Amino acid sequence: MADEIELKLALPPAAVRRLRRHPLFIAAAPLGPPRLLDNRYLDTPARELAAAGIALRTRRDGRRRLRTVKIAARSVKGLSRRPEWEVPCPADPEPASLDFSDVGAASVRRRLARHAAALREVFATRFRRETRRLRVGDGVSILLMLDRGEIRAGRRRESLCELELELERGRASDLRRLAATLCAELPLRPEDRSKAERGHALAARPVRRAGTPSRPRSRPRAARR
Questions:
Q1: Which residues fall within 8 angstroms of residue 173, CB to CB, at 6 or more apart?
Q2: Which of 210, 162, 209 is nearest to 187 (CA)?
Q3: What is the pTM of this model?
């Protein structure tokens, strides 16, 4: 198990060019070419995992297939710290066949096993991730991950454009300091909702039928006599 310490920042797509020109972004060393990530988030029809603060995801990252379990954590101004268990898994696994023996929290492991037969895809995310490593000061290492794509839940779609700052070495205050510098010069804002939380909200949103107006039409005013 590893604790993931990250700070999430939302940005308008139109501001991506400005971010790429920022000296701190330029100073961060690219870690390979951008990668296309396909993610399926699984839960029961009654969303019992989400209600318990558990996010279950399978990811396709090139030839790699990964299964990830995360526990929800309170996010303050975009900064969160949450336990995470990630292991390789078979390509396109059936949800009921997933193995949770690596999950170190016994209560979480038991809950996942209990609901395994009822798991299904609730929503998905598909985005291109560009990852860079910024070394700041003595022994501080921070990953900058620029994600651009969308969240999908049936016919519903929501765009995704955010910068994740993930701490490799250092303190949470180092993340806050870097975020404050970037936010002072770019139209970034802290995002307290995880991708899982945004996906569940999207999945719960009613689907608007084609041709249905987005708001009720007002009645025509009576003609003056």
A1: none
A2: 162
A3: 0.86
Give burial (CB, 10 Å; 0-12/13-18/19+) of 92: exposed
Q: Which two tokens stand for residue 201?
A: 């909200």
Length of the chain: 225
CA–CA distance, 43 with 52 (Å, rounded to integer): 11
What is the distance between the alpha carbons of residues 211 and 202, in angstroms, rounded to a whole number?
20
What single string gives the DSSP state of each residue in 128-156? EEEEEEEEETTTEEEEEEEEEEEEEETTE
Distance CA(51)–CA(68), nearest Å, equals: 17
Q: Are strands 64-71 and 2-10 parallel, antiparallel or unpaired?
A: unpaired
DSSP secondary structure letters along 52-98: TTEEEEEEEETTEEEEEEEE----BTTEEEEEEEEEE--SS--GGG-
The vertex-9 CA angle with 194 and 56, nearest 5°, equals: 20
Q: How far apart are CA 23 and CA 44, in angstroms?
A: 45
pLDDT means per 10 residues, the chain with 225 residues, are 86 96 97 97 96 96 94 79 90 87 95 95 98 92 98 96 97 95 96 94 80 50 42
